[in-house]
Amino acid sequence: MANHDPLQTEMPFLSHLIALRDHLLRIVLTVLIVFLCLFPFSNDLFAVLAQPLMAHLPEGQNMIAIDVASPFLSPLKLTLVLSIYLSMPIAFYHIWAFVAPGLYQHEKRLIAPLLASSSFLFYMGMAFAYYIVFPLVFSFFASVTPVEVEMSTDIRSYLDFTLKMFFAFGLAFEVPIFTILLIWTGFTTVTSLRQKRPYIVVGAFVIGMLLTPPDVFSQTLLAVPMWLLFEAGLFFAALIIKDKFRRESQAQGMSEAEMDAEWAKREAEEQQTKED
Asked: pLDDT (tens digit, 9 = 90+) per residue, 56-82?
């Protein structure tokens, strides 16, 4: 009777934990290096962040610091968060390096572009917030400020507001990735999501209401891109599903004509289901 060595079953699990630890340490080290590089420019970074608000403050007015440590802690916090955001491509690379050995070849072809596009879309969301949303929102706030009120914003409150907006818009711009993953994993289908489009549009405005200040401009500026990005996700998910179908059909030895006929049949069935 063969002896069963428990170490032989434990080692693969332990090796995965060690690999995960190594990847996490590299991610933390990357964030630390970026932070140390940016730290000398903390005040300059905060000055750049403050530009959308400063452009709409009355002449002669500046931001204020209520807490004693705010002039130091607020730029420091901004630098740390920015270091995390800038390290996202490296973090996604290490996530990819950790999970890639357990994926099939066709899964690797999809996951790698998704991880790369995740960083790009997140940065696009942040840029959209900074260059489009902030000027409109701060202009609106300045226009509705009563004459008797002096608009002098605390730097800590401003930082918290802008970081929340950056995260909200960065996350909202990930909608195509979430949509593709939901369809690719079989959790839902393109047809099902198309049928639920009215509810998704309403949900986008609800999310915009929850994640943005209580004004219609910022809510709409978050909800509309989310809806458009959802439509983009549906479009690319349909292409991915069709490519997956063609590869599976080729593996079964189907001809091009047979594949086209089978795909047309599926589309007709989905259209009939949608009409019913």
From this structure: 877 777 888 888 888 899 999 999 999
